[in-house]
TrEMBL record:
It comes from Phragmitibacter flavus. Gene3D superfamilies: alpha/beta hydrolase. Pfam families: BD-FAE. The keyword DNA repair does not apply. Transmembrane segments: none annotated. InterPro entries: AB_hydrolase_fold, BD-FAE-like_dom, GDXG_lipolytic_enzyme. It comes from the Bacteria. GO terms for molecular function: hydrolase activity. Keywords: Hydrolase, Signal. Residues 61-247 form the BD-FAE-like domain. Residues 1-24 form the signal peptide. This is BD-FAE-like domain-containing protein.
Amino acid sequence: MLTSPPTRFFAFGLLLLLAPPMCAPTAASPPTIERDVTYGFKGGTPLILDVLKPSRPNGAGILAIQSAGWYSARRDPAIFVPNSLSLLNRGFTVFLIWHANPPQSKVPDAIADVRRAARYIHANASRWNIDPNRLGAVGGSAGGHLSLMLATTADKGNPNASDPIERHSNRIAAVVSINAPTDLRGWTTKPPEAITKIAILKAPLSFDAALESDCSPIVHVDPSDAQILLLHGQKDDLISVNHALHMIATMRERRAPGDIVVLKNSTHSVAAQDANAVATATVNWFVKHLGKSK
């Protein structure tokens, strides 16, 4: 039986879409939901995404990575609609991305899953009336880590792959990452003390130590990366704000695009005082970098 991650983790997987509603454009017609889209298989089990479709699509899409402690506890997509209206009313199509779960799935497997999801969306962009060059990703905690992996390790696909989906790019143009770990080096052998205290994290972190660098977004930073916005709680007691500070320093050193906002009131859970600021910054980032056709 799968042990669900603690509430503090799961809340982060849903952070953006469950943030308090903010001032938004005049409401459009209600969005529609496309459920149970299979974007791949793992061990014979379907990998699923759900789609929240705006009534007036603007041609851009957001991959909302549903991962908490690298667990992806699926929920009814309808619960995401009310507080995703700030994106939907601006015409963004929202893709809820679910990946395979521990103990079979480790961090590298979750990375592979979200890359597969991005390729699938590229391959089927016309199905949802979106421009594959106007895709973004958002996530908190582990979901933020996976979003950053998409931002920093994109490729054009393998034109010789037997699987047609693998021939497509997994590139995205903008990312919002909230309270995410950016450097997993050492985490399989000697993780931070706060991480060792959460027993269920042992399973996803039980992967080959030789892959730690491959799984660390900070290692891959370069000027070709997506536009990255880092949001991180100053008082985060689980994933230190230093992860974001070191990431932005590396981005600036290597001339990679992006910005950072330190949330002065927040721990690993976004404080009520910061929630609207997080939602506003997130939507504004995507409007700025994805809002218009290029």
